[in-house]
Amino acid sequence: MTKSYILHELKDYALISIGVILYAMGVTVFMLPYSLTTGGVAGVASIVYYATGIEVQVTYIFINAALLIAAIKVLGLRFCLKTIYAVFFMTFVLWLLQRIVEVPDPNHPGEMMLQKFIGDESFMACVLGAILCGIGVAVCFENNGSTGGTDIIAAIVNKYKTMSLGSVIMACDVVIISSCYFIFHDWFRVIYGFVMLFICSTTIDYWMRRRHQSVQFMIFSRNPDAIADAIVKMHHGVTMLDGQGWFTHTDRKVIVSVVRRREQFMMQRMIKSIDPYAFVSMTDASGVWGEGFDQIKVTAKKKKEDKNKKNAVLVCVTNNTTKIDTAQTALGEYYDIRSLLQVGCDTRKEFYSVVLGQEPRKRVAFIKKFFGFDAFYLAKDGTATLVQGNYDQAEYDITQHESLEAMRKYLEEKKKEVRGK
């Protein structure tokens, strides 16, 4: 394991701990003192607490332990490691926070009760508790963790059935919240439970989505080159479109760029400093996939449909159909061998023609840098130069192979390593 991998894992565990603390605060400070119920194992544990007085962490750890045993058998230990940590840490934090917030019960001398920090405002407790729980769960999800419970049930069901994770979790939560009626015989508490569930779900969605919010700029300027150069220096991509002002019938350049929402004010200041009279249109872009943003994700159903299809693209740095066919035959059906033209590298254009005059390592690196695909160059003597790696990394993994057969064996070994991790 590399140092960067260890640091990344430690960061995950630290942020999962913060998420667990926030969730536990929502349960202990706002839910339990006001006899509120939410979904998940925490909801089951709270119902048991209201009915029997058994503290929530006891029920919570026993239910999750049973679910984790089943999950390890079905999903594997690697999937469950961070969830196991979150469950045990949650158990400890729930116990600790109850000890911190409990006060003597004035109606029952010698007994303790959980303090109500906002008086008798049950609805406000419902809202605040749901927000804290939602943020806590979202922080755990963002860092590859989980608070256990219905998340585990959903993951197990999703492995064997086509039901979505959200449908399974929602079905479990509806049953759990509705069952609190048999404890209190009060429909208002059931309604509060569903309000908590709605606010918690909305908070999770908002928190998870906020990192992926982007904006698209369309800039109409008399000085497009300077603005485009400035955007590139900010490490963002730029596309220059040809346009025509219909009133003046003059040609204009339209600059298009997509940036994270947090960077929009920086972009606006930069545009104003170069061309105060630029016409700028900014629109929300809720889903952006590509370099510097998110990876395109395929749904479970689509993955199943594509299971037997070619699923690894390799670009052969040529437009020679004979070489393409030779490479396809040697590397097999698993790989989709594409030519330069098939990935948009038109070597008839000046910018792309430079690739043809470079030595093999620079040729494959050029394709990786500007098109993102793994690529290889097949020399006349049969040797192959292969490039692999993440799209946006500074340096790529370039290897030399004696033949296409040797490259195929190398790729097979790499696939086995990835599957074994």
Number of helices: 16
Oligomer: single chain
Name the structural class: alpha+beta
**Uncertain spans, ≥5 residues at pLDDT below 50?**
299-310
State the shape: extended
Overall mean confidence score, pLDDT: 82
Major beta sheet, specifics? 5 strands, mixed
In which range does the helix fraction lie?
Answer: 55-70%
Could you give the count of β-strands? 11
Identify the strand order in the major beta sheet.
8-7-9-10-11
**What radius of gyration results from the CA coordinates?**
28 Å
Distance between the termini: 11 Å
Order of helices and strands: HHHHEEHHHHHEHEEHEHEHEHHEEEH
Strand proportion, as a percent range, falls in: 5-15%
Characterise the protein shown here.
This protein is of the alpha+beta class and 421 residues long. Helices cover 55% and strands 15% of the residues. The chain has 16 helices and 11 strands. The protein has a 5-stranded mixed beta sheet, sandwiched between helices. Strand 9 (374-378) and strand 10 form a beta hairpin. Helix 1 crosses helix 4, helix 1 (3-31) runs antiparallel to helix 5 and helix 2 packs antiparallel against helix 3. The chain is extended and about 90 Å long. The termini are close together. The model is unreliable at 299-310 (pLDDT under 50).
